[in-house]
Amino acid sequence: MIKRFFIYGFAGWSMEIVWTGMHSLITGDLTLQGYTNLWMLLIYGCAVFLEPIHDVLSRWRWQVRGLLWVVIIWGIEYTSGIILYNILGVYPWYYSGPFAIDHLVRIDFAPAWFAAGLLFERMHKALDSIKIV
């Protein structure tokens, strides 16, 4: 379980760095600077606790699973953001704009979370197939 925790954590970190680097490109910053923080390793690592949910959903249609992952990930993102805000006194991430909810979740990120949820499912299957405990 600890190995999987860190695999999910590093995968999430990597995805976030690519995501924020692509945002740099879209906004005209050709340095493509991507970033994350150490807290995110712990948050993404907790995907290991979602494996039982994936086991239950695995036979469902991918469209339904993707939508459920969006809702689950938004819940985790919002909850972990509130917890970190209460501990640190600052937002661990700060979303703004018309699609932001309490600066912790962005509704327009739904397609990214849809894809991320399905990607983490594939990681789970791969980890199971190579017997990583």
TL;DR?
The chain has 133 residues and is mostly helical. The chain is built from 5 helices and 2 strands. A two-stranded antiparallel ribbon has the order 1-2.
Protein model, in words:
The chain has a two-stranded antiparallel sheet with strand order 1-2. The model has no long low-confidence stretch (mean pLDDT 94). It contains 5 helices and 2 strands. It is globular, with a radius of gyration of 15 Å. The chain has 133 residues and is mostly helical. α1 packs across α2 (38-45) and α4 (62-88) packs across α5 (110-129). The N and C termini lie close together (6 Å). The longest helix has 27 residues, at 62-88.
> What is the number of strand segments?
2
Sheet with the most strands?
Answer: 2 strands, antiparallel
The helical percent reads: 55-70%
Instruction: State the secondary-structure class.
Output: mainly alpha
Largest beta sheet: strand ordering: 1-2
Name some characteristics of this structure.
about 65% helix; two-stranded antiparallel ribbon; about 130 residues; globular; mainly alpha
